[in-house]
Amino acid sequence: MTEYDNIELRSEKVRNIIGRVPPELATGGTVYIAFLLFVLFIAAAIIPYPENIRTGIIVTYKDRQHIQAEAYIPYRFINRIEDGTDIIVEMEGFTAQRYGYNSGVIEAVEDSLISRNGTNYFRAYLTLKVPFKYDVKWNMQGVATITISDKSILQYMLGK
Q1: Which residues constitute the domain of residue 29?
Q2: Mean pLDDT in runs of 10 for the chain (160 residues)?
Q3: Secondary structure of the chain in the HEC alphabet?
Q4: Which residues cross the membrane (predicted)?
């Protein structure tokens, strides 16, 4: 029985073929992975990744030419919001899918601290562009989206 335990099942040619990695496969796989990483790098450099803040607003003044509103923005964004920043607004009861978004601008930022329910805010005064497709009422509420950064994914990863 001991004579049959050490039998070679494959010839030397077969063992050479099995033991050797084809160079085309190794080179091709490396090139494929390098190309894929290059494409991902280019996509990360080109594709924008905007950073937005969504906050509630309330209409405080309305006449034929002007609509003004206030927004309470979390205080952690105090250094990122500036006068003149563009906003888009969706008013309560008038969905953006049906009526579209309205635009506006931040006119002034108050840096005083306002505390509500354990969270700190600051007040921003907004001017909304007229005309609206519907009648805006005094004290009407809505949601404003403020874009504070429009950098690419790569710019976020690399920092400044």
Answers
A1: 4-46
A2: 58 72 77 94 91 92 87 90 90 87 90 88 91 83 90 84
A3: CHHHCCCCCCCHHHHHHHHCCCHHHHHHHHHHHHHHHHHHHHHHHHCECCEEEEEEEEEEEECCCCEEEEEEEEHHHCCCCCCCCEEEEEECCCCHHHHCCEEEEEEEECCCCEEECCEEEEEEEEEECCCCCCCCCCCCEEEEEEEEECCEHHHHHHCC
A4: 29-49
